[in-house]
Amino acid sequence: MKHLETVQTPPNPLEKQLAQFLKGRRQEETYAVFAKKVGLPPSTLFRIENCQQSASLKLIYQIMKRLKVALTDIFKGV
Questions:
Q1: Residue 3 to residues 6, 7, 8, 25, Cα–Cα distance (Å)
Q2: The whole model's pTM is what?
C-alpha cells in the first residue's frame, strides 16, 4: 500500500492577510473563545491563522458578519 504525501503549497498573499487579520483580532483570547465569536471550530481557526487551510468565500463572509467588518478591513490594499 502506497502512502500519499501531502504537498503543502506556500500561502498566497490573501491567505497571509486573512491570517494576520484574525491573529490581530484574536489578540490574547484563546482559540476556543475567539472561534466561538467567528463560528468556527478552534482547530479550523488555528489552521487558517497558520496558513495551513484556505478559507472559502462562504467562511470569509461568515467571519465578516460575525466580527462586523468589511471585506476591505480584512484585505487591505487588494
A1: 10, 12, 16, 39
A2: 0.85
